[in-house]
Amino acid sequence: MYNVDAVRKQFKAFDQKINGHDLVYLDSAATTLKPDVVVDRIQKFYAMESSNVHRGAHHLSDQATRSFEAARIQIQKLINASSDEEIIFTKGTTEGINLVATSFAEHFFRAGDEIVITELEHHANLIPWQNLCLKKNLKLKYISVLADGSIDEDSIEQIISEKTKLVAFSGCSNILGTFLPIEKIISKAKSVGAKTLIDAAQLISQKKIDVQVLDVDFLVFSAHKLFGPFGFGVLYGKKDLLHQMPPYQYGGAMISTVDFEKTTYNTLPFKFEAGTPHVEGAVGTDSAIQFFNSLGIHNVFSHEQQLLKIATEKLSAISEVQYFGTAQNKAAIISFNLKGAHHSDVGQILDQMGIAVRVGHHCTQPLLKKFNMTGTVRASFSIYNSITDIEKLILGVEKAKRMLL
Ligand code: PMP
């Protein structure tokens, strides 16, 4: 049995009142709350171990380096990469995608080549490609999304062609919750010799990822959506590709030898990690993964799926609720509008009741425009949410209905 009360006790955020109410946190798709073990680990690092990595000849630096590299191994295991050299530390999903756009696509693609994404991408997996296509005269193509928020599988076949050099797609939509048919997309991409990138920002907390089984070329995610610190993330890349790619940024730590005339670069993964890294980010992420593993991803998934089912049923009883994203296979992310009310007003009323949701375009403006919308209210559920949270959400939506309609 999944013990949500025991999980909640591990988060200090629930000890406070928000606008006089207990916190109902339904914004985990934006960022998850951080458990005490992660906060304590970062605090301990700053208090006792704060030191730079890979350079000092002293105890603390040695210790920091060991903790930093232990995090890399922890992350390698999380996604089953074949080597820790394939785990590049970044500041998050966004930076990982920009790194691949700059060091891989910009370097290797030629005018006329095509990059394929989907219509449901977060701006982080759209704008870097759009910009690159303008700069290099490449073509950006989109796999279509159907009205229920699922991917049009015929479109996968039509859009990915011999001209496609890269297919970059989200494993799970941050606005619709839809899980994408990852294996199908990768298999089609491989059949035309295209490389693949998975934006796993949402997927990482939902499903066990095995990069070797998926045979994906690149995968990116952010620690802050996995109960870890802000400003830290991961780019996984296949070793042979990373070897061929030039550095992304230049400076200290990414070098092997430097002369006034020329520089040789460090080995993987350090070639892509210029400058002093986010050491406490790595250390905190290590704790976050240990914490997440202790819950068991399958237990977490079934808990959240149960919340999704109950919340959807209860919200459906309010006839003014209109859903955006009703695919069969989706994460516990519910985007909706109250017919006749603005999403921001609904969000404000919920906030007064201590209920945290996200409102707006969720960094998916083109998708919303396609369906003639400007925004939604998004309630996203995670490990610490309970049926009581759903009941409070329903009370809040009913109150918003009374006040706004
Ligand atoms: N992709 C998806 C699917 C996301 O949900 C997010 C965060 N909302 C991002 C990319 C960007 O992540 P970050 O801001 O942590 O770089």
Write up this protein.
This protein starts with a helix and ends with a helix. Helix 3 (59-79) packs across helix 10 and helix 12 packs across helix 14 (387-404). The protein has a seven-stranded mixed sheet with strand order 4-10-9-8-7-5-6, sandwiched between helices. It has a four-stranded antiparallel sheet with strand order 13-14-17-16, covered by helices on one side. The chain has a two-stranded antiparallel ribbon with strand order 1-2. The protein has 14 helices and 17 strands. It has helices at residues 4-8, 36-49, 59-79, 93-108, 127-136, 153-159, 182-191, 211-214, 239-244, 279-295, 297-316, 343-352, 365-370, 387-404; strands at 17-18, 21-22, 24-25, 87-90, 114-118, 139-143, 164-170, 195-199, 218-222, 233-237, 255-258, 263-265, 321-324, 333-338, 355-356, 358-360, 376-380. The radius of gyration is 22 Å and the shape is globular. Helix content is 40%, strand content 17%. It has two domains: 4-26 and 296-399, Aspartate Aminotransferase, domain 1 (Alpha-Beta Complex), CATH 3.90.1150; 40-293, Type I PLP-dependent aspartate aminotransferase-like (Major domain) (Aspartate Aminotransferase, domain 2). Helix 8 links the parallel strand 8 and strand 9 (218-222). With 405 residues, it is of the alpha/beta class. The mean pLDDT is 98. The site of 4'-deoxy-4'-aminopyridoxal-5'-phosphate (PMP) has 12 residues, from helix 4.
